[in-house]
Please model this.
Amino acid sequence: MRSALAATLMVLSLAACGDNSTTANHEEVHKEGTPSESTTAEAPARTPSQAGARVFLIEPANGATVKSPIAVKFGIEGMGLAPAGSEEPNSGHHHLLIDTELKDYDAPIPADDQHKHFGKAQTEATLELPPGKHTLQAVLGDRNHIPHEPPVQSEVITINVE
Model:
């Protein structure tokens, strides 16, 4: 029963992850898409990453001063992109951490305003951020939104929004 519940919650979580190209859509898609403690307690083992694989932010550049909405472009080398739920080997999809750091690499990445999911394997998006200094970091997640082992993640960059 517990396994069936965990599997159902994982399917619902995966179904909730979609196109995050706008903030409004993110809120609509992810109202109930955050993994619960019951799904993280039984999270599958982390997927191995390819040696030398990396993700990075093409845009915006570290230290850039920008105006909202902000164009974000992701880069990836050494692995492929695939939608959430896909069993394509050596692949994953982008997640963007905003003004936060990932605390648990063994659990699905949360889905909230500080953890944006790009579960359709998008390579770019538009973000609305308030004026001020912000940090951004790209993290590749596997089909279950869990970071690979070892993690494939960008350096943390800082931007200033006017």
About this structure: The chain has one domain: 2-161. Residues 2-161 form a domain with the Immunoglobulin-like fold (CATH 2.60.40.10).
